[in-house]
Write a structure and sequence with these properties.
Helices cover 60% and strands 5% of the residues. With 263 residues, the protein is mainly alpha-helical. The strands form two sheets. It has a two-stranded parallel sheet. Helix 2 links the parallel strand 1 and strand 2. The longest helix has 30 residues. The chain is flat, with a radius of gyration of 22 Å.
Length: 263
């Protein structure tokens, strides 16, 4: 798991999506507590809450590497980074969803592959304004649609995170939105929303509580008994009551207390 975390940190911004599926039967909040204690930031899927719940997780390979074409290029244990590297070498335009475009659309596709989504959309729209042939128009429309889809997906995540008072995560996505769409209406709006969020008192208080919870969970890793961990989480809850972080701490404590597997 520590190695998986290092791999996640190395490749998460290079067009690689990561997630881990726990196979020990832990609940969502037990998994959150476990990840917090070990400092794991990659997404963890709770087996019981997923579509994988019917699979035999004991005998399944530890790691699967799936390339951009949906093909499993590695399954098993051991040195899987080289398969990630080779798959990335074959990935011409990260996140675009296709590796070939008509020549006239290449500049827009290249901008997209660099994460310059505002520029990619602008170049694609410029192509469309010239009333190009069907092949060029199809690729240009596709690139515009992909940039719009990414912006919409990120904004939906931001709205959900703000609704759940996960303001640190919302800030991260707003920074991405402002950066990748810099110079466009989408980027300007994200930048304004980001500035407002950073000034918001409730968001500041919640972020402070989240940072404190992270420290509490990290300290819990050194605790010798479950009772000590529970005590630390309940104390955090009492001190930070009223924040979403406190609610999460209480939920983790209740899950751990009732667990026969969490130690």
């Amino acid at each position: 798991m520590p190695h998986f975390q290092k791999t996640f940190e190395a490749y998460k911004d290079k067009g690689v999506s990561f997630f881990a599926v726990e196979g020990d039967g832990l609940t969502k909040y037990e998994n959150q507590a476990f990840a917090g204690e070990w400092g794991y930031t990659f997404p963890i899927v709770t087996l019981a809450d997923s579509k994988l719940s019917g699979y035999d997780m004991v005998t399944m390979p530890i790691v699967f590497v799936i390339n951009s074409f949906g093909r499993v290029v590695f399954q098993g244990n051991g040195d899987y980074e080289k398969y990630i590297e080779s798959s990335l070498e074959d990935l011409k335009y990260p996140y675009l969803g296709k590796d070939e475009v008509v020549g006239d659309a290449e500049k827009a596709a290249e901008a997209f592959g660099k994460g310059e989504y505002a520029k990619a959309k602008e170049l694609a729209n410029e192509l469309l304004s010239t009333e190009p042939g069907d092949d060029v128009a199809a690729d240009a429309k596709y690139i515009v649609a992909r940039t719009d889809s990414i912006a919409s997906d990120w904004q939906a995540k931001i709205d959900a995170m703000k609704g759940e008072r996960r303001f640190d995560e919302a800030t991260t996505y707003l920074e991405k939105l402002a950066d990748h769409f810099k110079g466009s209406e989408i980027g300007d709006k994200a930048d304004e929303e980001l500035k407002a969020l950073k000034k918001d008192k409730d968001a500041k208080a919640e972020s402070k509580a989240r940072a404190s919870l992270a420290k509490t969970l990290a300290a819990n890793k050194k605790m010798k008994t479950k009772e000590d961990k529970l005590s630390a989480l309940y104390k955090f809850y009492e001190k930070n009551e009223g924040t979403a972080a406190a609610d999460d701490a209480k939920a983790m404590a209740e899950a751990i207390k009732n667990s026969s597997k969490y130690k």
